[in-house]
Write a structure and sequence with these properties.
- The protein has a six-stranded parallel sheet, with helices on both faces. It has a three-stranded antiparallel sheet with strand order 7-10-11. A three-stranded antiparallel sheet has the order 12-13-14.
- Helix 3 packs parallel to helix 4, helix 3 packs across helix 12 and helix 6 packs parallel to helix 7.
- The protein is of the alpha/beta class.
- The chain is built from 13 helices and 14 strands.
- The longest helix is centred in the last third of the chain and has 24 residues.
- Bound molecules: adenosine-5-diphosphoribose.
- Adenosine-5-diphosphoribose (APR) binds next to helix 3 and helix 6.
- The site of adenosine-5-diphosphoribose has 29 residues, from helix 3 and helix 6.
Length: 343
């Protein structure tokens, strides 16, 4: 066994011993499985559902971390005990510190406040900045070779925070936004046309906020351009609903924000990385000149594989699309400037 794997095995013994296995049983268990390991920081609605989906797909062993004592442990155990019914064989454990997270392949950061009715994602900036800063510091200390997948809002600003704090290369800090935004757009299109959601592909650019840019032009149904199937007024209505898709759910829930679709979207990214699937997905990526944008995380199409972001696709935009993207990037920059002034 190579040195890295020995370290990884030792790290995995910790959650197993916490789960009550003695060292010998834990070792024999691990010898049969050098699975991937994913840490999910934040065991709230989004985090717990990420853990459940990762376990359900048998992608990796999962460690849930939260500041609230007992919650990650309890939810971890509960998810673990679904295994015999659902038929998955991964370990799921919970902790209040980061020791058990050591040598994770991926760290998904969902810790932080969700918004309430009337709030924009940007209203969460300063509170979640402190949380994401601490979570990143701790996570990367124990998993220096991991890939970070950010979910906490305001997403693009939180990616920038994690990127600065971790000092990771830009391919290893990725934000979940576009997969969710396109999932919402695809849902509404499929509903409107009465077709399978799996036939609808879509692309969204820009920040994960009110200024996101769903690209009707690059949206199709089994290769048929959307404009052949729907008139412009209908497309505009669906774009608008996708743009406000998060707020629509916050309004219903009243005490928090969406979590089933956000966790599904984050786990699609985790799966593409762990299985090196090289899916092309809209994600928040650090841009250095692409689309004329610098030193910001903004949603763009990327290839996701075992090295994280393996390619950023720079597509030719029409003038009004470029203008909308610039407006969205400017909104992200405003948040970064606020954070810079507080650092
Ligand atoms: N470290 C670890 N966990 C933390 C920390 C911290 N420093 N601070 C808060 N948390 C935990 C909370 O204890 C809570 O369990 O983060 C969890 C957040 O869970 P919820 O309140 O249920 O929020 P959720 O719906 O999961 O949203 C989390 O994801 O989609 C975004 O906008 C959303 O920013 C929000 C984040």
């Amino acid at each position: 066994m190579v040195k890295g794997e020995v370290f990884k095995m030792e790290a995995q013994l910790i959650p197993l011993s916490l789960a009550g296995l003695d060292r010998r049983s834990a070792l024999s268990y691990l010898e049969n499985s050098m699975r991937k390991k994913v840490t999910v920081v934040g065991a709230g609605n989004v985090g717990a559902n990420c853990a459940l989906r990762i376990a359900g797909k048998e992608l990796a062993d999962v460690v849930l971390v939260d500041i609230v004592e007992g919650v990650p442990q309890g939810k971890g155990l509960d998810i673990l005990q679904s295994g015999p019914v659902e038929g998955y064989d991964v370990t799921v454990t919970g902790a209040n510190d980061y020791e058990a997270t050591a040598n994770s392949d991926i760290v998904v950061i969902t810790a932080g406040f969700p918004r309430k009715p009337g709030m924009s994602r940007d209203d969460l900036l300063l509170a979640n900045y402190e949380i994401v800063k601490t979570a990143t510091e701790q996570a990367v200390k124990h998993s220096p070779n991991s890939i970070l997948v950010l979910v906490t809002n305001p997403l693009d600003a939180m990616c920038w925070t994690a990127f600065q704090v971790s000092k990771f290369s830009k391919n290893r800090v990725i934000g979940m936004a576009g997969v969710l935004d396109t999932a919402r757009f695809r849902t509404f299109i499929a509903q409107e046309l009465g077709v399978s959601v799996s036939n609808v592909t879509a692309m969204v650019l820009g920040g994960h906020g009110d200024t996101m840019v769903p690209l009707g032009r690059l949206t199709s149904v089994s290769g048929i351009p959307l404009s052949e199937l729907l008139d412009q007024a209908t497309i505009d209505r669906l774009v608008d609903r996708a743009r406000n898709g998060g707020a629509e759910i916050v309004k219903y829930l009243k005490t928090g924000s969406a979590y089933y679709a956000p966790s599904a979207a984050a786990v699609e990214m985790v799966e593409s990385i762990l299985k090196d699937k090289k899916k092309v997905l809209p994600c928040a990526a650090y841009l250095e000149g692409e689309y004329g944008i610098n030193d910001l995380f903004v949603g763009v199409p990327v290839k996701l594989g075992s090295r994280g972001i393996e390619k950023i696709y720079e597509i030719k935009l029409q003038p009004e699309e470029k203008a909308a993207l610039d407006k969205s990037a400017a909104a992200v920059k405003e948040l970064i400037d606020v954070m810079k002034s507080k650092m």
